[in-house]
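Hey team,

Sharing the AMP-dependent synthetase/ligase domain-containing protein run so nobody has to redo it. Sequence (288 residues) first:
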Amino acid sequence: MGERMGAGLSSGTDRPGRHLPRRDAPIGSLTGGLSERLRLRPTRGGTIRGRDRRVDGLTFAATIEQAAAGLSRRGMCLGDVVGVLAPVSPERFLATYTVMAVGGRALPLCPSTPTEDQAAALGATDARLVLADADHTEAAQELAERSRVRQIISFGDSRGATPFEELLLPSPDGSGYNPSRGLFDNGVLGYETTPEGLLTTLYPHNDLLARFTDLRDHLGLAPEDVVAVEDGADEPTGTALVASALWMGACVVAGSDCPPPEGRCVTVRCGRGAPVRVAPPESSAGAF
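Structure output:
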């Protein structure tokens, strides 16, 4: 389902695109170039928070690049579909962005939907790999038995699954990540059940990038914002919004049960409807 990537994605001073000007928008995928951007703005890097943990934006972006290179070394092809089984959380977004960074198509599964629907979505898209958080690794293994999935990568220490940390190991040949690899080949897949059967929809890179830009400009995202993405949020919109918020150095809180940082309030909310600004950005520079 796409061309082979060979031994790995290129990196270092000889990587393609190294002479391109520094960008204020993504290249290749929604997080392509994010790590470099945040390295240049170390005091405005933002964070992404879940119920139990907080990750600074630079670490999050760098992890995506490392994991993307790890997936490439494992033979992932451009256009491959990879399931993501986790609630709205940093892990769900980390997995989604990692798949897209390799030129793949992420299929985020909703843990609250029937198992048969999740298995049907995996089968209809010919997914062979699932990334799952620790609490849903067993469920992912059950889905593998009902579909053509051959491998589970888990964010926890789960028997029968490959630990996510293995993707972060250095490449034996020194190859790494190039954000322009797989340009326009990545995307997010949505699915729903209809009277006629399962319907899947691809939201390709150009669609996600248009959402990224529209949300950034319409909401006027700023480093002082606290952006909350709740359970049930529209998948492509939430995916684009989180990337846009991190790109601007804002704080992201992922999941309906995730509180904002102490002493701060949510300024942008993304739930079942369109994202809305609920308060102006706070004047709290350096609070990340």
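The two ends are 41 Å apart (CA to CA).

Ping me if you want the raw files.
A.
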